[in-house]
Amino acid sequence: MDAYATHEPATAATGEPASDAVVVGGGAAGLSLAHRLAAVGSLTVTLVEAPDGPRRPAERTWCYWDRGADDLDEAVGASWTRLRVHGADGAPVTVEAWPFSYRMIRSPALERLVHDRLARTPGGRLLRATADTVRTATTADGARAEVDCTTPDGRRLTLRARHVFDSRPLPAEPPARTRLLQHFRGWFVRTDTARFDPAVADLMDFRVPQPRHGLAFGYVLPLAPDRALVEYTEFSRTPLTAPAYEAALARYTRDVLRLGAFTVEAAEQGVIPMTDARFPHRDGAVVRIGTAGGATRPATGYTFAAVQRQSRAVAAALSAGRAHTPRPHRRRTLAMDAVLLRALDTGRIDGPAFFTTLFRDVPPHRLLRFLDGATTLGEDWSVGLCCPVVPMLRTALELPFLSRRPLAPRAEESHR
Q1: C-alpha closest to that of 343 among 402, 270, 287
Q2: What are 288's strand-pairing partners?
Q3: Residue 113 belongs to what domain range?
Q4: Distance in angstroms between the alpha carbons of the first and the last residue of the chain
Q5: Is the pTM of this model over 0.85?
Q6: Mind listing the pLDDT tens digit for each residue in 118-162?
């Protein structure tokens, strides 16, 4: 839908009407926020997505916990209520996630859902363009935000809005004390015979060789008895080369899962920052969202659930005429994650043993809320008692004396 109601006069320079909100970026954060803002009904919302070409990201898979039905159900491709972790010794730990379910959404399904919502909303608009510059501008009515865009046919547009939510990657990662990456490659496989149990998702399978820093695990989301997404994932300092990912996946599917003959129908690859850096949040009328705004949980890499919480809160605030936009994670959550990241990076704790113990000893409903940063202080303490106390305490005492340093260039960056 290319026309929408306006609350302010059109800009003289471009003829573009101003809107309540402009959302920049068509990833998980941008799509989710545009979806929730459009659902309000009384707001004018423009979603700016990159046109087809090199700037448009490849298809992606997002997973999150939730309970009951939600407004993303139409985009959910699969879900599981039984979850399993395999320790390094091969012993499985299976838990019932109820009342939660672990849900998988593929990016094309979420795009269709959100685009349809925008098309059916009088104040909704989807604009395919490259966002070149985002800035706050001071007007007689106060701070406003502007987005300079270039359309696929070369036209220049300036969008104006009361609020701009920018999900584009930062030009440089903020200084940090600890940096790990969650990097992975996955295959969508089809086997010749039934090899998977569609009722159980394997979140972490530590029956793989471990890196010197961090940890590595397999990840299996069964879609049918003969179909699954199988990934090899590492929490470590640098990504692998493409041949190294392929070799790791080949070993995992052959030696651990013993899949026999299978066909790789599609593949995906990604890198997620795991860092205690302080990400920017607001610059006047411009708010950073998604990974660029610190939505990625530092110790787990989970992002999608935090994006949903923040999107709901932003939509509720704007609907009520307030400009408040909460940060995606609480300070307590970030402080705990900083300790765990440092302990993993220094090798003071055994990563596979740590996560296996959590799944074995913590009640599942509490653990899943803890992984999403939604537990109370008392529940955080109860989970903390299952952690190796001495190395975690040593790390907590050390952190205040460590300086935050800018990211040094890495040769391995080219493998992302």
Answers
A1: 402
A2: 166
A3: 19-59+106-172+279-319
A4: 35
A5: yes
A6: 999 999 999 999 999 998 887 656 558 899 999 999 999 999 999
